[in-house]
Write a structure and sequence with these properties.
The complex is a heterotrimer.
Chain A (H helix, E strand, L loop, with lengths): L1 H31 L14 H41 L3 H10 L1 H4 L2 H12 L3 H4 L2 H26 L2 H10 L4 H30 L2 H6 L7 H11 L2 H33 L1
Helix pairs in contact in A: 1-12, 2-7, 2-9, 2-12, 7-9, 7-12, 8-9, 9-12, 11-12
Chain B lengths: L2 E9 L5 E10 L4 E5 L6 H9 L9 E4 L2 E2 L10 E4 L11 H11 L4 H14 L15 H13 L5 E5 L7 H18 L3 E5 L2 H7 L2 E6 L2 E6 L1 H6 L4 H6 L4 E2 L3 E3 L2 E4 L2 E4 L7 E5 L4 E3 L5 E10 L4 E6 L6 E5 L10 E6 L5 E4 L5
Parallel strand pairs in B: 3-8, 3-9, 6-7, 7-8
Antiparallel strand pairs in B: 1-2, 1-4, 4-5, 9-10, 11-15, 12-13, 13-14, 15-21, 16-20, 17-18, 17-20, 18-19
Chain C lengths: L2 H31 L8 H7 L1 H34 L5 H9 L6 H12 L4 H5 L10 H26 L2 H9 L4 H30 L2 H6 L6 H10 L4 H32 L2
Helix pairs in contact in C: 1-12, 3-7, 3-9, 5-7, 7-9, 8-9, 9-12, 11-12
Family (chain C): Belongs to the binding-protein-dependent transport system permease family.
Subcellular location (chain C): Cell membrane
Protein name (chain C): Putative spermidine/putrescine transport system permease protein
Chain lengths: ~260, ~350, ~270
């Protein structure tokens, strides 16, 4: 009896791991084998990765550029706003936080439709990368605000600021000398989340992109639909190599910020 | 119930010895306290008795002649009060207290009557149908006790049951708990790091240090005849008199004290209440600080031994800081104990 | 400049951005849904048109099934990982949280690798085993990205449970299965409701996975996409988006209220 109750959870855990891991391994192998259908015996090659680089390096760089631009914008918009929300923890702040969190709840497709209907006719804006950037900021901003807000809510911000004010620091000085340094763990966790999510964002981007502006995930969808399995796998492999370190860093930073909150 | 523990030891994975082989016998209706600093092994011993930890091979736990060493927790019929109380937040006060009886599959009517009985005894009538979250700390403690007692366990185990309360409440509940345990007439083991708690509640106290029982006895015995320097320090805050011992003479910096017996190689300790300010006294010291504490003054004395010694002084006035005073200590108040490694 | 003005200034950039790119566009979307000949009756039309209604039902059914499966798997695995420390535990935990950052398209590709025409299952097993493009593929894809999300929520909640609660139930004579029913599941229930709502909402709105699998069954996001791009039926696409958005938003509101309560109860 005891061994059964103990072994079922283990088996479920291992099966779940296998379900998640096996296709990842498959895609890594498929991206590196000469002919996936014949298997590993056909030999290993970097040919497919090279082909991906030729075909899609533009989309990779566009994604990195968008992610960094998205980071800058969310920092400028999000950090001061989180501070303002932390200093005024009232009903209005709750409603505003809830409202900017809507993009977490509403599917990206619906948001993209909304943006397209309002701004789709502004040709200069519609066809520029900044249109995609708006979508990415919309989606990632709540993560930045919440991450910073949770750290600021956990420290006694008011006393710290009163202390600085009693020493003669004005509001702007206090923001940069007291608020930002104390919020750093939250800012770091938020920043890594923003970059990770921006690089992987598909639902909004697919609707907002133009044929000349393909991001990495858009390119992935393109390769899944039109390329041979080995190229699609190699491209997925490139994506993994980019996203997995970011994910690990993001989890580390979030755990670190979480410890402050508790 | 009589509880017999033989050769109980616990080595944690990684080799840390939390508990060295320990024997203990507790008679029916007796309340024994396991007293010691954190990490001394007292909680480990309690959890082994409960069945929540497995002792090293060779241990034997006997409840009234029945060997329960290999019985699992849920079949051991023990009652336990946890430090955090561990009350089930999804059940009412009544639900918590009746849970153990429900596990025994007693008929509904009997559960109700026994729950009511315990509720009355613990004076919880007014809160019986409240949610756990609506209770104060003291009320939670009583619910935890009632829940542990309702199934009529063979032995009641209490793990620091007062430490979650604030200081003012703790003293009051300590006496209340002592009274309730006596009313129940149950064999109980009570883990604490607080000597006042142990002395107020227990019939016998086992002082533990570094995984071992240093001494077990009634509070009076522990206080008056401590077996080791550790026990003397932990129970009643004895202070060492650092000096040179020659036969029955203790040479301190400020003078020579007569010892009741030759004590070469031993350690001499004294309690603050046994140091008297006495113009005729054999040793001199300098008053460093004086603190007025209402019933007495607490005086820090320097120049007598290594580091300051404290004396309790009663009277209408006290010497001033900086004054030189003479002291006497009755020779029977000096505790002469083997010099151990245990600090 | 005083404190009040400074705080307002801090909010200003966010307020402008949110107004321009969230509030007004969403308002426009809602208005657009009423601009067809049917007017606001378009929402009634969704329920009366078999194609839209069956899509809605199918989406809800798949999402519910995924929610239940993800809760069962992740709760079992999560509790196991919280209560056992062993060599390799961190590796298992990393594997189980890895898909967190995968976009829906990649998840779809993972399912194709498992159950597509050139998929693993079809290669290993004799006969024809292609399930990636059916409702099963969709279910597995949604399950793929739901497991990590639910797992993290469950584990965070399980770690906050006082281990003495389980021990207390044991000392009172409760066998292991009763400890799970009487102590663990009640203590976890706010987290389970929150995680379930998140899983459900995510599955309802998932577009990338369905898009990559190009399944033979219709789910709501795919129908919105085809209405908008192929049929140019802007009003219907908008109306369906509004319905989808309201449903997912309501689910997440439930999730937040429950996880909020859990936090408050935890101390």
């Amino acid at each position: 009896m005891k061994s059964v109750t103990k072994s079922i959870p283990l088996i479920v855990t291992l099966l779940a791991c296998a379900f998640l891991l096996i296709p990842i391994i498959q895609s890594v192998l498929a991206g590196l084998t000469v002919n996936y259908f014949r298997g590993l015996s056909s030999g290993l090659t970097l040919k497919w990765v090279g082909q991906v680089w030729e075909l899609y390096s533009g989309s990779i760089f566009l994604s990195i550029w968008l992610a960094l631009a998205c980071l800058v914008v969310t920092l400028i918009l999000g950090v001061p706003a989180a501070y303002a929300l932390a200093r005024n923890p009232g009903r209005a702040s709750r409603i505003l936080e809830e409202f900017i969190s809507l993009p977490l709840a509403i599917p990206g497709l619906a948001l993209a439709l909304a943006l397209l209907q309002l701004y789709g006719t502004l040709q200069g804006f519609r066809t520029s990368w900044s249109f995609i950037l708006v979508g990415h900021v919309l989606y990632t901003l709540p993560f930045m605000v919440r991450s910073v807000l949770s750290v600021l809510a956990a420290i006694d911000l008011k006393s710290l600021e009163e202390g600085a004010a009693s020493l003669g620091a004005g509001p702007a000085r206090r923001f940069f000398d007291i608020v930002v340094p104390n919020a750093l763990p939250g800012i770091l966790a938020g920043a890594l989340t923003v970059v990770t999510l921006s690089i992987g964002e598909f639902n909004l981007t697919w609707m907002l992109h133009t044929p000349y502006l393909k991001t990495l995930p858009v390119g992935l969808a393109d390769s899944y639909a039109s390329m041979r399995l080995e190229v699609a796998s190699a491209y997925t492999l490139v994506f993994f190599v980019m996203i997995v370190p970011l994910l690990i860093a993001m989890q580390w930073a979030s755990a670190r910020a979480q410890r402050i909150v508790q | 119930m009589t509880l017999t523990l033989t050769n109980i030891a616990k080595t944690f994975p990684g080799g840390t010895k939390a508990l060295l082989p320990t024997d203990l016998e507790i008679s029916k209706g007796e309340i024994v306290s396991l007293l010691g600093p954190s990490g001394c092994g007292k909680s480990t011993l309690l959890r082994i008795i409960a069945g929540l930890e497995t002792p090293d091979a060779g241990a034997k736990i006997v409840f009234d002649g029945e060997d329960v060493t290999h019985q699992s927790v849920e079949t051991r019929k023990i009652g336990m009060v946890f430090q955090s109380y561990a009350l089930f937040p999804n059940m009412s006060v009544r639900g918590n207290i009746g849970y153990g009886l429900k596990m025994q599959r007693l008929p509904r009517a009997e559960i109700d009557s026994r729950v009511n009985e315990v509720i009355a005894l613990c004076r919880l009538d007014a809160y019986a149908d409240r949610s756990i979250t609506a209770l104060s700390g003291g009320q939670r403690q009583r619910v935890a006790l009632a829940r542990a007692m309702a199934p009529r366990p063979r032995v009641l185990l209490l793990d620091e049951p007062l430490s979650a309360l604030d200081a003012a409440l703790r003293g009051q509940l300590r006496d209340e708990l002592a009274l309730l345990l006596r009313q129940f007439g149950i064999t109980a083991i009570f883990v604490t790091h607080d000597q006042d708690e142990a002395m107020a509640i227990a019939d016998r106290v086992a002082v533990m240090s570094q995984g071992e029982v240093a001494q077990i006895g009634t509070p009076e015995v522990l206080y008056r005849n401590p077996a080791t320097g550790f026990v003397a320090r932990f129970v009643g805050d004895a202070m060492p008199l650092e000096g040179r011992i020659e036969a029955d003479r203790l040479h301190l910096r400020g003078g020579v004290l007569a010892l009741p017996k030759p004590a070469d190689g031993s350690e001499v300790l004294v309690r603050a209440e046994d140091i008297r300010i006495d113009p005729e006294g054999p040793v001199s010291a300098r008053v460093e600080t004086v603190t007025f504490l209402g019933t007495h003054y607490r005086i820090a004395l320097g120049g007598l031994a290594e580091g300051p010694l404290f004396a309790l002084h009663t009277g209408l006035s006290a010497p001033k800081p900086g004054e030189d005073v003479r002291l006497s200590i009755a020779s029977e108040a000096l505790l002469i104990l083997p010099r151990g490694l245990a600090a | 400049m005083n404190q009040r003005h400074f705080i307002l200034l801090c909010l200003l950039p966010l307020a402008i951005f949110t107004l321009a790119f969230l509030a007004i566009p969403l308002g426009r979307l809602i208005l657009a849904s009423g601009e067809s000949d049917a007017g606001w009756g378009i929402y009634l039309q969704i329920l009366q048109t078999p194609r839209y209604l069956s899509t809605l039902v199918q989406t809800v059914v798949v999402s519910l099934a995924v929610t239940v499966a993800a809760l069962a798997i992740s709760t079992t695995a999560g509790l196991f990982l919280v209560r056992n420390r062993f060599r390799g535990r961190n590796v298992l935990l990393s594997i189980l949280t890895l898909p967190l950052a995968f976009p829906g398209v990649v998840v779809g590709f993972m399912i194709i690798l498992l159950g597509g025409r050139q998929g693993l299952v079809n290669q290993i097993l004799p006969g024809h085993w292609v399930f990636a493009y059916s409702i099963i593929g969709l279910f597995l894809g949604y399950l793929y990205f739901s497991i990590p999300r639910v797992l993290l929520t469950v584990m965070a909640a399980a770690e906050k449970i006082d281990p003495a609660l389980e021990e207390a139930a044991q000392t009172l004579g409760a066998p292991p299965w009763r400890v799970i029913i009487d102590v663990l599941l009640p203590a976890l229930s706010p987290a389970l409701i929150a995680a379930g709502a998140i899983a459900f909402a995510t599955a309802m709105g998932a577009f990338g996975t369905a898009f990559t699998l190009a399944t033979d069954i219709d789910v709501l996001p795919m129908v919105i996409y085809t209405e908008f791009t192929l049929s140019a039926n802007i009003a219907m696409a908008s109306a369906l988006s509004v319905v989808l958005g309201v449903v997912t938003w309501a689910m997440l509101l439930i999730a937040r209220s429950f996880s909020g309560e859990a936090v408050a109860a935890g101390g």
